[in-house]
């Protein structure tokens, strides 16, 4: 596409009427918005008339919910500027994790004689880790594992919890 004299005049006319670069491009046809912007800058048509059809949007009045909460008893000055890294004077308590309940499976009690270390694990023992690996009391479940699974029945139900099981347990809560 080449800029003919007629197309340049039409560009100047549309630009002076206040049309956006996208609108001018669609009126001209066969030219992109960026091509219009480039030609406008090369021609030096920086000033553009404001359109009278679009009224400025009215501003929403500020409500109490838009403002940050201020405590009435606080004598501290309001925060100014970026406060993302500001130390909170009253730290919030950390959310407590919800306990996962498995009503269909009884908890497994691992007697000391069944506890397995990494050296005593076999293909037929449950490999569910119990405790912190850094503790001296760390061990594996050690019960007989189900065929095709590294875990016993109880730990398989925990490990292979399906989405429908999770949804069912949420509805029960």
Write the layout of secondary structure elements.
Blueprint: H1 5-16, H2 21-28, H3 33-43, E1 129-130, E2 139-140, H4 153-159, H5 163-172
Antiparallel strand pairs: 1-2
Helix pairs in contact: 2-3
User: Secondary-structure element order, as H and E?
Assistant: HHHEEHH
Major sheet details:
2 strands, antiparallel
The total count of strands amounts to 2
The gross shape turns out to be: elongated
User: Numbering strands along the chain, what is their spatial order in the largest sheet?
Assistant: 1-2
Give the termini distance in whole angstroms: 66 Å
Radius of gyration: 35 Å
Mean pLDDT: 76
- Range of strand content: under 5%
Low-confidence stretches: 102-106
Helical run tally: 5
Tell me the structural class.
mainly alpha
- Helix proportion of residues, in percent? 25-40%
Q: Can you characterise this structure?
A:
The protein has 5 helices and 2 strands, in the order H-H-H-E-E-H-H. The chain has 173 residues and is an all-alpha fold. The protein has a two-stranded antiparallel sheet with strand order 1-2.
Compact overview of the structure:
The chain is mainly α. The protein is 28% helix and 2% strand.
Features:
173 residues; two-stranded antiparallel sheet; elongated
């Amino acid at each position: 596409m080449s800029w003919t004299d007629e197309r340049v005049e039409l560009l100047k006319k549309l630009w002076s009427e206040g049309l956006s670069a996208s609108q001018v491009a669609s009126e001209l046809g066969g030219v992109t918005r960026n091509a219009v912007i480039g030609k406008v800058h090369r021609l030096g048509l920086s000033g553009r008339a404001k359109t009278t059809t679009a009224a400025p949007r009215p501003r929403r009045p500020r409500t109490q919910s838009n403002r940050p909460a201020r405590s009435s008893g606080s004598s501290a000055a309001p925060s100014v500027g970026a406060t993302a890294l500001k130390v909170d004077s009253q730290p919030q308590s950390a959310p407590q994790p919800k306990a996962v309940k498995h009503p269909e499976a009884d908890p497994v009690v691992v007697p000391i004689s069944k506890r397995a270390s990494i050296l005593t694990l076999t293909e037929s023992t449950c490999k569910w880790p119990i405790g912190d690996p850094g503790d001296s009391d760390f061990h594996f479940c050690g019960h007989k594992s189900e065929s095709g699974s590294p875990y016993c029945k109880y730990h398989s139900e925990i490990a292979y919890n399906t989405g429908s099981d999770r949804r069912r347990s949420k509805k029960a809560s």
